[in-house]
Each structure stands twice: as C-alpha cells, then as structure tokens.
Amino acid sequence: MTNKFCVSLTCARDDTDRATVAFVVANAALGSEKETLVFLSTEGVRLSQKGYADGVHEDGFMPLRELMDNFAAAGGTVYVCAPCFKKRGLDENNLVDGAVMVGGAKLVEFLSDGSPCITY
Questions:
Q1: More confident residue, 97 or 85
Q2: pLDDT confidence of 96, banded at 50, 70, 90?
Q3: pTM higher than 0.70, yes or no?
C-alpha cells in the first residue's frame, strides 16, 4: 500500500467552498503522515499566485490562505499544471511557496504506484 495521497483541485474563487475543503483534506493527509500532493489544474491554477487566496474564508473553516500556508510549511507539495497556467497568462515569478510547474507526466509518476486521489 502506498504512503501517498493526492488532491486534485480544479477550482479557485469560482468555487471557494471546494477550494477550501481540498486544502482541509490535504492538510489532514499530511497530518496522517502521507506524502501529499495538491495538483492544481484548470481554474485551480489561479491559487498558485501569491495573494490570490487572500480574503477567501468559508464559514466554519480556516481562511484558505492559512490552509495553503500550513500545507506548504508542513512539507506538502503543490504541482501546477503548466499548460493550464500558461493558457491563463499567469506570472511564473509570483508562485506561492511550495508550488512547482509541471506537465501531466509528473502527476502520472506520482500516482503510478496506486496513490489514492480525490478531486475537487
């Protein structure tokens, strides 16, 4: 059995509830001592930009910025889909801590040993 866990996130401010819950689950996986990856694709890549998550706060949860900061500080990895990122004309020099630009092959490599993956 693998000791990895993947959270795939396809939304940002267009669905702040899902974006928030994705990072709640990702932090829980890290807390369970799983090597945890958040894969940002489609609109989710916007969360890779410093300042974008500021002010997002769903009732009953920590603010999204805090969840993301905690995830990075605890050693979580954020993969950012390079084609999705480039399509949106975002700034590669403005990535949040822990974010890495990747192609789909890096996600496949991470998942290749049977790692579970949940999508929001």
A1: 85
A2: very high
A3: yes
CA-wise closest residue to 15 among 45, 48, 43, 52: 43
**DSSP helix/strand/coil, 36:** strand
Query: How far is Cα 12 from Cα 17, in angstroms, rounded to an integer?
Result: 9
CB–CB of 47/9 below 8 Å?
yes
pLDDT band at 1 (very low <50, low <70, confident <90, very high): low
Residue in the structure block whose two tokens are 């949106």:
88
Sign of CA dihedral 47, 43, 83, 117: positive
Q: Quick one: tokens of 78?
A: 């954020």
Are 78 and 30 in contact by the 8 Å Cβ rule? The answer is no
Separation CA 22–CA 24 (nearest Å): 5
Domains of the chain: 4-119 (3.40.1260.10)
Among 23, 16, 27, 28, smallest CA distance to 58 is for 16
Contacts of 63 (CB under 8 A, 6+ apart): 53, 55, 56, 57
